[in-house]
Amino acid sequence: MEQVSIVCRRRHLSRRTEEAYRHWIRQYIFFHRKRHPRDVGPVGVTTFINDLATKRKVAASTQSQALNALLFLYRDVLEVEVGHLDGLKRVQRLSRLPVVFTVEEVRQILGGLDGLSQLIAELLYGTGMRITECLTLRVKDIDFGAGTIHIRSGKGGKDRTAILPARMRSALQKQLVRVARIHKHDLTLGAGHAPLPGGLDRKYPNASRQFGWQFVFPSRITRECPGSGRTLRWYVSESTLQKHFKDALSRVGIHKHASVHTLRHSFATHLLASGIDIRTIQLLLGHRSIKTTMIYTHVHHAIRQTISPLDLL
Prior knowledge:
By secondary structure, the chain is mainly α.
């Protein structure tokens, strides 16, 4: 498993991808009664992936993630040629429309939140960012002069630019004042370090204590880095935000099967409904293919004010 992590980091895979790959490789090892994957051989991949489909009844995306993890294990970590996997049973990928809030529901949900959770939720809906992209924002990524937010190493390791909602300028400036106060207090204690991506901490050893590298939404607690011994302040927990969001849904009486990510779907759908062209929405969402963005055209048509034939009787 240490080898898996080393190769993941050498290839600059995201932390979430590394965690997912480690999870499925561990599941694969237990499935084959703790035999080493090299002893099992690539033929064991087919039996494990088919078991996911037939017995565990996982979704197509879950099965694909597990398959990618095992191909990564054999090809990149163990350097074993996999070849053609005979008898592989793939789960049929279903075409599902994303859950979307109405504008009034978004207004109610944001009103049902408070404090930092409300600020983050407003930013997610106002920019269309993914939750991790939002929580990992640094102070230097917000450009008040240009009215933009720079998203670094988003999904797929891609950078892009998001719009900064005009009505959020004041709230974000106040948040940065709070961040500066926290950072100043950390510095007086000999800390004040933020974790840096890649090898920047070695290239720029003092950058981690600069204000520009601090997270816009810092965690309340600090943790010691095992490698460097520095006391680091990370960003707020995603699970905490998800919990507050679910509580808000319950309080305002919205019973859709939704999560914080639904705000991103609502952002795209509401932009489309207001007349923004699909290419611009693709750019703002950071989609590689226009086909991914096109799903929101189906959502838009599905929620239009169409008159039922029953109402015409």
